[in-house]
Amino acid sequence: MKIAYLATWDVHKESGVLKKIRDQLSAWQRLGHTVALFAFTRPGPLWSGLEGLDVRVIRRRAKWQAPARYGALMARVLRWRPDVVYARFGPYKPALEALWSRVPVVQEVNTDDVQEFRRAQGRLEFALHMATRKRIFERSAGVISVTHEISQRLSGFSCPREVIANGIDLSRHQPLPAPTPSDHPRLVFVGTAGCRWHGVDQLAQLAARRPEWTFDVVGYGPDDLPEAPANMTLHGYLPKERYEPLLASADAAVGSLAIHRNGMAEACPLKVREYLAYGLPVILGYRDTDLDPNQDFVCQIPGQEWATAQHADAIEAFVQRWKGQRVPRPQIAHLDTLHKETRRIERLEAWRRTPARG
Hints:
- By secondary structure, the chain is of the alpha/beta class.
- It has helices at 16-30, 66-80, 96-100, 113-120, 123-139, 148-153, 200-209, 240-248, 270-277, 307-310, 312-322, 337-351; strands spanning 2-8, 34-41, 55-59, 84-88, 105-109, 142-145, 161-163, 186-190, 214-218, 232-236, 252-254, 266-267, 282-284, 287-288, 298-300.
- It folds into two domains: 2-167 and 336-351, Glycogen Phosphorylase B (Rossmann fold); 170-335, 3-Layer(aba) Sandwich (Rossmann fold), CATH 3.40.50.2000.
- The protein has twelve helices and 15 strands.
- Helix 1 (16-30) crosses helix 12.
């Protein structure tokens, strides 16, 4: 099968999303398919992690040029003659009409687009999205959502749906040795500044309750969290080779603590899969699509304000229990990218035979 991966994303800087795209493309190749990434992106050199993959870009320039340049990207996709297009969901663009009429398009939906656009866009852009999103879903051959919650919110559309949560290429990550047990536990969080659903303010509340612990926060600098207590170190952005030592020294890792601020209760963050691939037990403020909250390497607390402070004792008991240990790899084998992508390819094979939807 010949698969075109369509994404509007920065392909020049390492990120969790870009690593996911890389791993998906690599897995499809390993499964015997021909793949290419068609990216609408800013100018700049490609991220080195994409080496060996077929990447074709149209670079964004002035805003008034965007429709024509996106149209040029669609023309490139069609000239490549794919059997199916796999697209990261984004706002409607008129140039998509030419694509929908010629080739089946499957959408990957990673968030509640209504909540996301309401928060991130101006009134006019949000109104336009609400007026056109039905067109996107009704013309799609299928939709793959990363959580059951997101999929349920799309139940009003007639397109076929499937849930495949985020995975991780376990072959790229070896479990890190556990640190020597200490009376002063160490927790680590990796994220991106400006994402209020990460709940780093809630993590700061826990840090204030446990001043003898150490908290390493990657992706946030001092200006992003001025109220951080003295035992919380804000490292700012770090590439993988610089945050790996922080993971190695941690007793446990922290996932998002406030996705309830987005009106959601379920998630499958890429960073949590990375924590687990390195062998770290995890503390979560949501229901993970792939993880049983009763598994001993998961500490799931309620998704609500002040939850970390209110459940500090339960978190402490969890961390104390896991000191000097790492999560056994067989317990997370189901998170592996190849397992996920085999299922995804099965859906693409079925949906590419779907007649054009009008």
